[in-house]
């Protein structure tokens, strides 16, 4: 079954690129033609690259990896956050902090500070003994940290891969991922550089519908990977307990054979004959 159809891509406007004067020559191989000064992306290639990216994300998650969703441009913020929260993955929808990957140790300290302030705010007497000005300053600090780091609050280590919308805008994230050799899956418009992405998906990164569709596809890959991971864990647990499928089949065959043998034994056994009492001769009348 196809991950997505050509009709869905066309309806979402994934085939529309940038103006012909705003392009990257390296994207030439992904361009089908141009119309009215706008490049048209070859969706046949897009379908192929979507399948490759889908399989990669699914396998990454199936092996216990995490995918960081990144999209700070206005069109991408809502789809990125919604899909990441739906599949339980970290995300960045506001400003990308420099060093979020390469200096994750420091970033994790800021995450711990944010959680500390959240716990303080949730407690009834969390601000006990503090003045109004200090409480106001702490509240502002918490809101600022939540805005920037809220999406990665549960990310305990560097992610296994990144999903990026608009690699030109998120060039710092791409650069950090390259330094740490973290694979990047990204949608590439006609003004992007395909060489900096491991799993490119040629498409429109400006239209909200296009971004939403492509991000949903990546989210579905995450869901499929989680299901595969659960199936593998269940199979491993059964194998560790000696409850493999072959053993269950053998037990079922043994049980059916035992039932058949018992039935055959009952059929072959001699049946006990109950003697029938003969009626005694009645004395004739007059005797």
TrEMBL record:
Which keywords, in A-to-Z order, does the entry hold? Ribonucleoprotein, Ribosomal protein
Give the top-rank taxon of the lineage listed in the UniProt record for this protein. Answer: Bacteria
For region Disordered, the annotated ranges are 228-287
Q: Provide ranges: composition bias, Polar residues.
A: 277-287
The molecular function terms of the Gene Ontology recorded here are: structural constituent of ribosome
- Which residues lie in Basic and acidic residues bias regions? 240-251
Which CDD domains does the record match to this protein? Answer: RPS2
Q: Name one GO cellular component term.
A: cytosolic small ribosomal subunit
Fetch the Pfam families from UniProt: Ribosomal_S2 (PF00318)
Biased-composition ranges, Low complexity, are 252-274
Keyword Plastid belongs to the record? no
GO process terms (BP): translation
Q: Which family does it belong to?
A: Belongs to the universal ribosomal protein uS2 family.
Name of this chain's protein: Small ribosomal subunit protein uS2
């Amino acid at each position: 079954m196809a991950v997505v159809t050509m009709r869905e891509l066309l309806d979402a406007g994934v085939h529309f690129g940038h103006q012909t004067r705003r392009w990257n020559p390296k994207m030439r191989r992904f361009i089908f033609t141009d119309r009215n000064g706008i490049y048209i992306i070859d969706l046949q290639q897009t379908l192929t690259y979507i399948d490759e990216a889908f399989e990669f994300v699914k396998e990454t998650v199936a092996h216990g990896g995490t995918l960081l969703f990144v999209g700070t441009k206005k069109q991408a913020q809502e789809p990125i956050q919604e899909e990441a929260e739906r599949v339980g993955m970290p995300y960045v929808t506001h400003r990308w902090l420099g060093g979020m990957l390469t200096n994750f140790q420091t970033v994790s300290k800021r995450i711990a500070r944010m959680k500390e302030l959240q716990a303080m705010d949730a407690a009834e007497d969390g601000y006990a003994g503090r003045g109004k000005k200090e409480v106001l300053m702490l509240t502002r600090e918490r809101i600022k940290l939540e805005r920037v780091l809220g999406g990665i609050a549960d990310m305990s280590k560097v992610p296994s891969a990144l999903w990026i919308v608009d690699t030109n805008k998120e060039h710092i994230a791409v650069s950090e991922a390259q330094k740490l050799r973290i694979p990047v899956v990204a949608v590439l418009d006609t003004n992007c550089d395909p060489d900096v992405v491991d799993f490119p998906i040629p498409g429109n990164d400006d239209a909200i519908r296009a971004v939403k569709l492509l991000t949903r596809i990546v989210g579905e890959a995450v869901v499929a990977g989680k299901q595969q991971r659960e199936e593998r864990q269940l199979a491993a647990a059964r194998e560790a307990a000696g409850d493999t499928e072959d053993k269950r089949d053998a037990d079922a065959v043994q049980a059916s054979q035992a039932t058949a043998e018992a039935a055959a034994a009952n059929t072959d056994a001699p049946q006990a004959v109950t003697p029938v009492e003969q009626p005694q001769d009645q004395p004739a009348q007059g005797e």
